């Protein structure tokens, strides 16, 4: 509790209020909650309590790997969770390390050399490290899958399953009422605690349901909010323009000229559009950075750092890079191009206003799938908004707000 007070937590969010007590009872959890609802603390706190019950890592036991693994879809989200996890873990003497693409295997092996109780990783890079024997999961019995639906959407289902299959199997919970018994599940089985599996997601597609059925035992389900409900505190606009690119850019220029200050984030659907649009808005007096999938990790980190410290006042990014971007006080978000899939429009940021540009007669605004949630902290009020923004629909389809 002292750690929570020291870092400024005063009251739990709804997901924390429900998920933390369940997690402390050694139960598997399926949490259906939106991004920005405080999920990180909802699983980090039970993980740390779990680790406290285990022997400290030694020069010998650290070679058996971490005590807990958190799987996430993107490197930005992994690094964001790493920063948050360290706020809790380091005062308690624990280490949290992220393993993501963009860094060499040697560099990540060095980061793991002193051992780490918690590893936050993207599935593909974690599998790569397991296959190279940089890391083993011989004593990992606590696994969290955050943004699980997004991992499935991005094609990580097989990688996630390979990670789960690499965990110890002798301590899997029984598929019976015993899995709901806190005292039984707190016992050691062959020098291991029973495995605890936690999954957070915004939706539950069939592939995710199959995975939950295979790897989870009598999970408690926590559902927070009515995902898809719009709010009145955010201005949402659809600007109808033709297919002419020059007309679209003139409209973008008009919107940006109305904006007195940044940060501003503009989404495009292809990486080649990032640099082109960044050059265009730089001629308007903005200082943009870009973010897309093929960009090297140090360049991605530099771009986000510039946006956070004010060196840059605009970010042009592909929808693929949307998850994991954590920038405070964003004033405006523009969907310059539509994402190629509906889930590609699932963004979350600290925002004050949201604007959308889309072309064609079949563009519709899905207002009811936007949601805002505020999270009060000791030193700031953080407003996070995320949701599907616009949809390309057949001309006979309509959406009700």
Look at the helices and sheets and give the structural class. Answer: alpha/beta
- The CATH architecture assignment of the largest domain turns out to be 3-Layer(aba) Sandwich
Number of domains: 2
The main sheet comes to:
7 strands, parallel
What's the level 1 CATH class of the largest domain?
A: Alpha Beta
Strands, count? 20
Share in β-strands: 15-25%
Shape: elongated
The total count of helices amounts to 13
The CATH H-level superfamily of the largest domain is P-loop containing nucleotide triphosphate hydrolases
Radius of gyration: 22 Å
CATH topology of the largest domain: Rossmann fold
Euclidean distance between termini CA atoms: 43 Å
Q: How are strands sequenced across the largest beta sheet?
A: 3-4-2-5-8-1-9
Mean pLDDT: 78
What proportion of the residues is helical, as a percent range? Answer: 25-40%
Low-confidence region ranges? 228-233, 342-401
Describe the structure.
With 401 residues, the protein is an alpha/beta fold. Helices cover 32% and strands 22% of the residues. It has helices spanning 2-6, 14-24, 39-52, 75-89, 105-112, 123-131, 148-153, 157-165, 182-185, 206-215, 245-258, 271-282, 297-309; strands at 29-32, 68-71, 96-99, 118-121, 142-145, 188-189, 192-193, 196-201, 220-223, 235-241, 264-268, 288-291, 314-318, 332-335, 347-350, 353-359, 363-365, 370-376, 381-387, 390-392. It has a 7-stranded parallel sheet with strand order 3-4-2-5-8-1-9, sandwiched between helices. A 6-stranded parallel sheet has the order 10-16-14-11-13-12, with helices on both faces. It has a 3-stranded antiparallel sheet with strand order 15-19-18, with no helix packed on it. β12 (288-291), α13 (297-309) and β13 form a beta-alpha-beta unit. Mean pLDDT is 78; it is low at 228-233 and 342-401.
